[in-house]
Amino acid sequence: MPTPKAKKQKNMRSSGRTAPELIFGNLWNFDPAPETADPKVKATYDLFIDGKWTQAKSKKRFDSINPANEKKIAEIALAGPLDVNLAYLAAGRAQKSWARTPGKERAKYLYRIARLLQDRAREFAVAETLDGGKPIKESRDFDIPMAAAHFFYHAGWADKLQYVAAGKTLEPLGVVGQVIPWNFPLLMLAWKLAPALATGNCVVIKPAETTSITALKFAEILQDAGLPPGVVNIVTGAGETGSAVIAHSLAAKVAFTGSTEVGKKIMRSLAGTDKKMTLELGGKAANIIFEDASLDQAVEGIVNGIFFNQGHVCCAGSRLLVQESVAELVISKLRTRIRMLKVGDPMDKNTDIGAINSLSQLTKIKRLVASGIKEGAKLYQPECVLPKQGYYFRPTLFTGVTQSHRVAREEIFGPVLSVLTFRTVDEAIEKANNTVYGLSAGVWTDKGARILKMAAELKAGVVWANTFNKFDPSSPFGGYKESGFGREGGRQGLLDYANLV
Amino acid sequence: MKRLLITKTPKVYVGGAFIRSESGRVFAMKDADGNFFANIPQCTRKDLRNAVEAAAKAGPSWAKRTPYNRGQIIYRLAEMIEARSLELAEAITLGSTKKSLVTAARNEVAASVDRLVYYAGWADKLEQVLGNVNPVAAPYFNFTMTEPMGIVGLIASQEASLLGLISLIAPAIVAGNTVVASASELNPYPAVVLGEMLATSDLPGGVVNLLTGFHRELVPTFATHAHLRAVIAEATADERKTLALGAAETVKRIHTFKAEDNINWYSDSFESVYRIQDTLEYKTVWHPIGA
């Protein structure tokens, strides 16, 4: 790493800007610290239908690849419409008695599931990282514990449904079809299953084709928990399988998390039907830094906001809005901080940024970054060494971004941050809201009153003040505008899985 | 000599003003006896877009008023209607003196007034019922509150020309949305008279915008207009599909009531905080706790 010239450092200090940067070069490298727990992944997986492992009718399988080294992990059954139909029939058979099962008893199953997942947390964390490429410290400290927490939280609702909506009680919808993304595979499964089961629905769920393994391992937990057959059915495959899940006539409701593009396709495909829908789609969140914010804390928040999970986060803080008076300082601190990020083997406990989930996602990120350069934004990437095998992308900072740039408008879903500036509160609000998306936003300021004003003005379903990317089972999550509709988590999340009667 | 009556030129209430359709088009309406009654504006897509613009202008300040104030204004609207209820009942029957029709119309006006009063009362209570604090496992004061979606499109009942319209307007505006509503095409006249009452209530211009015309001309634009964040509609199967397809363009929220179900607009289900919820977004805020 290059050392800044001493003269420049002095200038920066005298102008009240950033303190000299301590660069130790390569004096201390991290030793490798690989996580070695056994993920207990089988060589082949079938579909989980009616409580049993079931071969796909077509006998076709697809490979699940480790994006960190492009090696095959397992062969997974490819579900076609016939298999999806069987899954729905099983769910339909199970649904009546599941809905009649007293809430107290349904709760016990969910509590069991939460506990069994906690028991096997390390194993699941390793499997998640192996399959999806996210750093082990994230799957270990965030994905898996949070997934268990979702089951634990919703378990407690199952026998308290008369308290969810004032003056009403909740009745299950029936069978629910769910299609989930690859960025938080097990966590998204938990977000979808826990409220659906707590309210007495049965489920046909399809994990993303690049990240099916933890969903299939989760089926083992369902078996161990003694969940009645058919209550949860897991079908694996890509877009065509997903379409079959969405289209099936037995689905009373469809829940989808993924891109806005696919969300719109789903809306069109369901036009003219009576199916209920919740969509959790894309985002282009503004992370707004005011001059009075604690800037070091804000820089940590910015880094967490955009580089968490390689930026594969729908609510990622991908548009940084910095007040002009501190923009130079924040950007300089940010560059220094980004240089410290460890990019590489996801299974290494020190890794900050792991592998991009798939080749197609890597291609998309590269394409959008190229457009940023072409449209005149200034690129910064640290000079880190990337592994030779696998899909990796350097943490990327674009400065000089304008609102019309593609990197400021389109969801990149990668470790790419676009920096814009503003002068006044009103300008910050206007720029932050100048997007078709409305999933989340961040505000950094020392003023409580300003936090609450910004929170009121920002058109986003979740607003984080002096923090970013915080989640909790009790905290509803979901978007405004083209970021979708419906909420997941909290009391409000249950409303989307029930009829009010 | 018998004095010749001054007949009223029906105009629709948009942006706080009484307008004709920009197209200059009208359609003739007959009274209960089958005689010519009046020419009703046949509003166009352009009128709808203008109305959305008016609603957009009125939106921010309406949403920023205190809930107490919004509640009082909606209550005031009920007062205005109650005082002129006979006129509205006649608008519903279109001059018919048939006793059963007259009674039904008076009941409909009474129910409409009661509905407004019901929703007026929700203004400063709905947040207490729908929002809440979330006990997150971290040092944050985390709360979920409601926010109006913005501009809501309403496609009113064909049959219940007043009650069906009021039942959609009231829950949408009480929380701070502004609306553009398409009135019953079978009998648009009560919507015209309602506009005159809206104008004399304290409701700011542009909060409620009423259009008359043909649903087949207006529904596609309701479906696709990007600034309408939601559409609440009584709709036929075809209209529901049109709305759903158009909504996909901008991920619009759609709530429909099936026209073929012979909806009972007097039903309790139309007096519910969850009808208000249909026009709200939930926003969750994480506020740090600490020195």
Polypeptide structure, described:
Chain A is of the alpha/beta class and 501 residues long. Chain A has two domains: 44-62 and 73-281 and 480-500, Aldehyde Dehydrogenase, Chain A, domain 1; 283-465, Aldehyde Dehydrogenase, Chain A, domain 2 (3-Layer(aba) Sandwich), CATH 3.40.309.10. Helix content of chain A is 40%, strand content 17%. Chain A has 16 helices and 20 strands. Chain A has helices at residues 6-14, 81-100, 103-119, 121-132, 136-157, 185-198, 213-225, 239-247, 260-270, 295-307, 324-339, 359-374, 406-409, 425-433, 448-457, 490-495; strands at 44-45, 47-49, 52-54, 61-66, 71-77, 170-172, 175-179, 202-206, 232-234, 251-257, 276-280, 286-289, 319-323, 378-380, 396-399, 416-422, 440-444, 462-465, 484-485, 498-500. In chain A, helix 5 runs parallel beside helix 6. The longest helix of chain A is centred in the N-terminal third of the chain and has 22 residues, at 136-157. The N and C termini of chain A lie far apart (64 Å). Chain B has 291 residues and is α/β, with parallel strands linked by helices. Chain B has one domain: Aldehyde Dehydrogenase, Chain A, domain 1 (3-Layer(aba) Sandwich), CATH 3.40.605.10. Chain B contains ten helices and twelve strands. Chain B has helices at 45-64, 67-83, 85-93, 99-122, 126-130, 163-174, 189-200, 215-224, 237-247, 273-277; strands at residues 12-14, 17-19, 26-30, 36-41, 132-134, 140-148, 151-155, 178-182, 208-211, 228-235, 253-258, 280-288. In chain B, the strands form four sheets. A five-stranded parallel β-sheet of chain B has the order 9-8-7-10-11, with helices on both faces. In chain B, strands 5-6-12 form a three-stranded antiparallel β-sheet. In chain B, strand 10, helix 9 and strand 11 (253-258) form a beta-alpha-beta unit. The N and C termini of chain B lie far apart (86 Å). The model of chain B has no long low-confidence stretch (mean pLDDT 97). At the A-B interface, helix 9, helix 15, strand 18, strand 19 and helix 16 of A face strand 6, helix 9 and strand 12 of B. Strand 18 of chain A pairs parallel with strand 12 (280-288) of chain B, so a sheet runs across the interface.
